[in-house]
User: Fold these one by one.
Assistant:
Number 1:
Amino acid sequence: MASQASAAPPEPLRSRGLHLDIRAVSHAFELDGQTLAVLDDVSFELEPGESLALLGPSGCGKSTLLRLVAGLETPRSGDILADDAAVTAPDPSRVVVFQDPTLYPWRTVSDNVALGLQAQGVLDHNGRLRVVQELERVGLAGFAKAYPRQLSGGMASRAALARALVNRPRLLILDEPLGKLDSLTRIRMQGELVSLWQERRYSALMVTHDVEEALLMADRVLVFSPRPARLLESIEVGIAHPRRRDDPRLITLRRAILELLGAA
Amino acid sequence: MREPERGALIWAPVTILVLLLAWQLLVMLLRPPAYLLPDPLSVFETLIARISLIAPHAWVTLVEMLLGLAVGVSGGVLTALALASSALLRRPLLPLLIASQAVPLFALAPLMMLWFGYGMTPKVLMAALIIYFPVASTCYDGLRQTERGWLDLALIMRASPLRIMLLVRLPAALPSFCSGLRLAAICAPIGAVIGEWAGASAGLGYLMIQANAQMQTALMFAALLVLIVFALLLYAATELVARWLLPWRAVSHR
């Protein structure tokens, strides 16, 4: 690591996006002795560097799918392959950003971002530089020593994002990451998430309730049925970034998706 | 949450002063016999006049409280850690811990005396026992109720069980530990004095019993006063420990 002196070029931030293959995945929970089916024979692929939005009624099982992809739970049936290897356990190459920023309140912003490296036992000098770099990238350099409870909602989301990105994920899993933000902050964060993704080229899998958000951010939108979630349709967005929310193509797609969801 | 506490620092002494004044006036007006209710001034006079008698007893009780606190808190924390980290220990120990909360610990004081004599040991054990259960159960609750997202995140980072304990579960349980410590500080004087009442040759509890038997009520109140001061100082110390352990709680909310 001696060659990583300050004069050396920074480590490449671009990661090789992960290829994800979901094959006939079904899942269910036991609830008070009853079996509650949440995912019904879901299959799709995520190409390296692609960004995919999962859209569906709330409580339909999308977040469960994310937990399965992260390796936090194992599906009842079907296979989840990351670069052709079965997902059996969580891994820092597949990082989740949760709806609640779930920052550790007892750690400063900088220590929160450093957690992943510390947990893996790789928080060296180089790691600390990465922490500073990510904090700068999300615009929180001035808040490195602040505690999470001193942050606004938007800043907490940025901190959670930096905490994920510092691990150089090859797949970023976003579980309604902007769900609790006010609308202005939300619009700004949508733009920032897209530019981060364009910069780093990781694969991205995002759950959202917001049709417009999905169409603004993702390459492809997967529409799911109410629980148990079945894949209804895969919609290619095909509009170059930056997208405008009043783009007529986007409005047409939005209407089509709302019809699929039975809301139009 | 901090506001009322800051206020307490100003208002508590004022309230105490007013109450003492009322007590003084009451005694001056009603003139009860001194063996029933001495006035606060004569309690202070007795405290100063007989400080050489009171001080050694106060020292004994203070040591009992502090040793009891040390033994009870470390025992409670270790139990909580064992329960939280091993299902093998949890299954037999947890029901026992819950059931033992129902045991009237004060009733054990004579037994402690029988087993360990008139010295300091039974008092320390009594204080430690009373402290042990609330500390063990609050700490265990704190270790058990770690927010799922915090754990998930550490799992995604492939943290080992030891690192998850050190980086997530322990710090997440610190607020609970501090509540346990506060309870312990409240229980410590009770345990020491109960232990002394069951049979002792020294200590503030012993002094109170002696003074009571000799109708030296002012001396009894003086001993009680010292005990109250100890209890308050102990409580204030736990508050300082809590602030040191939880610096993030003191920062202002956004």
Number 2:
Amino acid sequence: MSILVNKNSRVVVQGFTGQEGSFHAAQMIDYGTCVVGGVTPGKSGQKHLDLPIFNTVEKSVKETAANVSVIFVPPALAADAIMEAAEAGIDVIVCITEGIPVNDMVQVKAYLKNKNSRLIGPNCPGIITPGEAKVGIMPGFIHKPGTIGVVSRSGTLTYEAVDQITKVGLGQSTCIGIGGDPVPGTSIKDAVELFEHDKDTEAIVLIGEIGGNMEADAARYIKANGSKPVVGFIAGATAPKGRTMGHAGAIVGSKDDTAEAKKEILKSCGVHVVESPADIGAKIITLI
Amino acid sequence: MNLHEYQAKSILKKNGVETPMGLTAENPAQAMTAAKEIKDKTGSDKWAVKAQIHAGGRGKGGGVKIAKSIDEVKKYAEDIIGMQLVTPQTPPEGKKVNKILIEQNIFYPGESKPEEFYMSFLLNRDTGRNICMYSPKGGVNIEEVAEETPEYIFTEEINPCVGLQAFQSRRIAFNLGLKGSAFKSMLQFSQALYKAFINADCQLIEINPVIKTSDNKIIAADAKLSIDNNALFRQPEIAEMRDITEEDPAEVEAGKYNLNYVKLNGNVGCMVNGAGLAMATMDIIKLSGGEPANFLDVGGAANAERVEKAFRIILKDDTVKAILVNIFGGIVRCDRVANGIVDAYKNIGEIKIPIVVRLQGTNAEEAKKIIDNSGLKVFSAITLKEAAEQVKDVLK
């Protein structure tokens, strides 16, 4: 089993005919994901990658029963694209776009409050259930079906962790990149909670970074409810205060959101924290 | 993106926030003309002379003075313009002052005593909502107030669908202990400040102090504005306000090539694809006995041109004793990146410091061969652990 996406997911691509959208849609199809079509306003009736194009997400849902969307539209239009997907009743919205203004995401978050959609991202690599569905930009071949749930705020650092997990002989139930922005749709705690309730996830790898309180929230949840071993790594122990380290959300604001403080709280809540990102695979295998 | 105080105040004023009358000057003569004009328009016979640099604590370093005569304005202008201003927030060598702001005095005597408050608007990341944080204890370090007397820190959470509501503005004014016309002025002030926060796509507005004048006006005496870089595409006027003399020249240079670079003080440079992996690579450097000299995300397309630019930027820093390149090739193939690194190396000519290249992912083995057979002084690695060991070795 898995969380959020699987072989029955029917994926619609927003920003289907753009350069990024085209490239990654083809990669997702190659992986075996059930991509049912795409949305590019004004191109309805045409085909792209042998799949139908729709003017609106709503229409794509009606025609194809799409229940997952993946968004590749530019930052200025991405907030609108997320809300359109939610309005159309999409269950899982994955927003890859990097560079959405924070205040747009503040509005999106409020808009989604009364909707039944789950947003993953923005500024994220997406979500993959190995062997079933790849909804995002991650390299599919490093993944292997298995029982480790991975949640991370990063892209390539997630691939690093996944690769280590695969190379020690384990596989992943689902991997979620929640994204590096200050206002994400899904938090680390949300993802951990989903893995906790997934009967086929045996252990969890949690990759956090400096900035915000998401790791502390997840740690408290794990302490109160967690029944599965969790390996944690926090990136940015050497980052200076007050500087944004690539991800808009990766900035140390106070003594509570440093890597040290986050490692401490994770440890105190029973998470197996590794100091080096090279040790993630080696650690998880000892806990299975 | 950070702004100077005078730029921040121009944005506030445009949105209806009351600010002191002020004019900028780049030399003492301009400062005297500005002071005279302010006196003519406001009747003020004292002036604040304020250094315009991107750092707080300017008063502590001698960058803010109250002049009691035009002659004093001239004297302080002479002192401050061109000085290396050192404050708790600047680098140790300080920042050069190119411009000053001359403002009317707002601490004039009158029917009541002037009071100082604190007010800021910012994102609460826990809730994904903006908040107004305010305190009756203004004009002092707000972090200390929060630490020592948290009961004096108040917040209003803002529903983004409707904005800051009137009842919230009333609560703010009540909690600040205001009444009469000062109360009314504060209602207008908090509303205008929120308007500025949204209209200018701010990440932060911090007014410390907010002044209640002796005649019950509410004025932003200082202003710190930080703009969301992701929103600059729709804020062309604000994007024009960027002052690159306030930034590290290497960071400005890197920005031109869309390389995300932050200069640090260590001895091992690094070049990585992806921000999270870049931070993790810095951490690895530290665990291997070095100190990271920078953060550098080359992004997805780690081609020869970008790699060369990145090398050149890292090599400008002569405290760098080694470089660790860490690329996880997912969609981008490692052998291509390896060829890019070899080409970049050859284009630069002789690089005198050791370079460790770790390429993992698609075609990692071929990539290692390309590096090993290049004949260059480059050490190759595939796993992160090997890379960490290599860094340890080259630092010996």
Number 3:
Amino acid sequence: MNAIILSAVWGVIMMFSSILFKNKGAFKYIAAIGLIVLTVANIANTYGCDFFNINTHEMLRYTRFGLFFNTIAFLCTLIYVLLSGKEIEKHGNYVAEYYALIFFVLCGVSILTSFNNLLMLFLGIEILSIPLYILTGSDKRNLKGNEAALKYFLMGSFSTGLMLMGIALIYGGTGSFQIDVVRSATLFGTFSGISFLEVAGLLFMLVAMAFKVSAAPFHFWTPDVYDGAPTVFTSFMATVVKAAAFIAFIKLFEVRIADTSAVINWGMLLSLLIIATLLIGNITAVFQQSVKRMLAYSSIAQAGFMLFAVFSLNDFAKEGLILYAVAYSLATIGSFAILAKMKDITFEGFNGLAKSHPVLAATNTIFLLSLAGIPLTAGFFAKYYMLASVVKTGHYLWLVILGVLFAAVSVYYYFRVIQAMYFKEGDAQAEDVTPGFKIGLIIVAALIILVGIYPQVVLNWLYF
Amino acid sequence: MNNLVYLIPLFPLAGFLINGLFRKSLNKPLIGIIGSGAILASFVVSLVLFFQVKSNGALPVEALFSFINVHDFKIDFAFQVDQLSSIFLLIITGIGFLIHVYSTSYMHDEPTEHFGRYFAYLNLFVFSMLLLVMGANFVIMFIGWEGVGLCSYLLIGFWFKNNNYNYAAKKAFVMNRIGDLGFLLAVFWLLAKVGTVNYHDVFTAESLAKLTPTDITAITLLLFVGAAGKSAQIPLYTWLPDAMAGPTPVSALIHAATMVTAGIYMIARSNVLYSLAHVTQNVIAIIGIATALLAATIALKQNDIKKVLAYSTVSQLGYMFLGLGVGAYTGAVFHVMTHAFFKALLFLGAGSVIHAAGGEQDIRKMGGLKKYMPYTHLTFLVGCIAIAGMPPFSGFFSKDEILAAAYARSPILWGLGVLGAAMTAFYMFRLYATTFLGSFRGTHDQEHHLHESPAAMTIPLVVLAFLSVIGGAVGVPEALHGHHELHHFLSPVLTTEVAPELGHSTEYGLMAVSVVLALAALLFALNKFSKKPELGEPTGFGKVLANKWYIDELYDAVIVNPLLKFADFLKNVVEKSGIDGIVNGVGRFVQYLSRQLRLLQSGQVGNYILFMVLSIVVLFLVFWNQAIILQFLQKVF
């Protein structure tokens, strides 16, 4: 409960701090303090110290897995705020309010990691989404941003409708919103025994969640929104938010019958989603001319990989998802932080960056290598765990082969950036790169390599 | 006391490291002292061990460390000094030392850095050669085997600025590698069937019982392929004459006295196996005599002083293999020893001549060197007599032992062997007469330059000449009232072929025939070439011989060129249009797909929602019909 309440409260504090402080730069630090407080409170919660003992009638249930993800999300947001705080300040006069929205998003994240009731899931998704619609359109004078916000809102509403529809159907089938009840109903039913309502409801939920994690063919909003939103907010959306959505996804779908021998088999549907996501994400990214748009498609591709966890649903998958969240968030936050500093965000804009800003180029290379899943970076183990989880299930091994092939395709577009930075002549320009920013990047890069060499550094927290 | 065993290879290794690493900072005398001193130290230790072996029998196997250790399969880095290896140790370190000393003078004109490199290579060679003969199993032998191959490559191409020399080095290496493949296969075969590669374990009745006759024949034949590569036998001999591109002392040490006899050592070492494989023995005998004759005929018409010696080496190696083939292992080892003496002597003498003549190697441009170089002349003459097999010089005893054993197997082999011996006498004295007798035919400048070589070069010559004269004493046959001490010494490790005992009178007869024939050839050559040396280009059949039976050309046409053409085909056709085509094709296909898929992203929310709704419908359909779809998929795949 600590995380949920404190994040909401701190969001309110951020809103009022705009009255107290006139200096834009101050908000970044208030937010950072808030995040540290959140992290500490959440860790305390993890080890059994809950400040707010409210009886939620089992609508929320705290697990090690969910609380640990909270910690990761808060820390990633902290890194994000410290690295990209300057960029947030550039977008208009409502800096404190942007931070407030970010805290509200985190509140939604905290609910999503602990929901035990479909209503809570819905609440979490909405608390998560609505601030994002606003953040997408935060650059009021930018037509592209406005268009993106509107699109996001329209399609988001559509998916909300689907989710509500699904919840309603499940309620109709089982007479409950509690996950446990739904679970036992699906677990022990046979194909004929399970009500049509319930299965249809789950299918709608699947579609809605697929939308939130931008899995194809429900990904259409992603490139437009990621491209249109201010780069700095894209970075937040693509990392913490997306990872949280995946945690919710996997929590929800623990409901479905894990036993693959059952008559009802979700494997086929999920594998269809995975193939479509990997295909569209990776293949479309190849042709993009703008690095920002390429990263948008790459985030779809990465979602395809994270879907493996939802597909296999074993311990490997859960560990892997945590690892993926860390690896992917760190690398993407870093890469977007650099992108936000670039004057020209096309591939040509990166030409010769290694000469003008060697630190930026070097760290960006590490981020991109991690995204591509090259060994010695965190991304490698993240992908490894995902593929291993599927191997563990013993079915659909061809999915693994497909995953590896698409990972190979992804190398192409990530390396295009590296090639531009190191092997092409040009005068890439980055704006106000401070020593602090460089140090931040180096720390993130070092973390990626640390996790890449010793993934237990992250995973042990799941158990100890 | 047995720890001394480790010292033998350790000294040359240390010498290699010191000379190799500090070649730029040491000066020439120091390099020479370190290089030669290391070998001398090894020689002294070898001598001590030799006497131990002589009085107490073979030393126990000394394992240095476990080299390969997988499950219950274990190979030790172990050394074994017994009768056979101690003989080779003495030859390698003894002659090696003399040649090192000789080299300090011969290579003196090289810049210090290259001088150091030369001695480093030479020490590394000796180290590898010692590993080869001291190893207690086939794997250690193989390490040394490869090591000497590498050093041979490095030293043939020592003057690497000359591309022809590099080509010769490459040729030697490739030819040797072909042989190595045979060696490796044999070792693997042995491992698969017997499960061990230690000599001690392999050559026991228990292990041999695990091998079928086919196994033994195959293993011995494969080992022989390796030996043919290293010891320059048909069909892998062509690298040795080309190897003369290296410095002359290298030719003496590696390509005459030691490395090329590694094949003989290996077969003698495996004599237990070979005695059980009669097919292989016949093959070896036939290839041996054929090589001996082929090389001898080629040597008849060569005009390069080193080439003559090179072909003579090939020919003599052929004799040794003949000996091995007819079961005269002792005779083969004996001939290795005497050959090491007189062939090293001849090469060093040739080096001395080349040194004096300012790098000239064509004997047609020499002549009359007798009066300019008395020591070289005399020692060279001794070498020629020894190789021609004149009693009581060393070559006579070893060659006759082989020929006698050949006669016991088949008189035809003997007859061919005697023919070869006569040719040997002929071409050696042709060489001698053309070079040393008559009058000088070079330019005036060259004549002015002629001089006897310094003591560092002549002393090794004298020592070797001495050995060439008396070296046969260790193997005087009983027919000549000797004891053949070498035979007794080696008998614990070499099986004695139960050959039909030749009567003494027969032996006398055989000796007389071969000596008389060789003497006749000798005198004929001496008479013919001292007065009127062949200066013109050879014609007719002589031209075929001068061109080495066109074997190199044949190999080029049959093997090398087709291989190159095939490689060209792979490079230009298969890779360019095949592999590259596939790779680029995949890339282009992905880009094409990307261009098409991109169009899905139309930017219209209405379109997006439509797609999503359609997808939901499809998902519903798939979900409810998945059993049918699965059945369908199973039918299709």
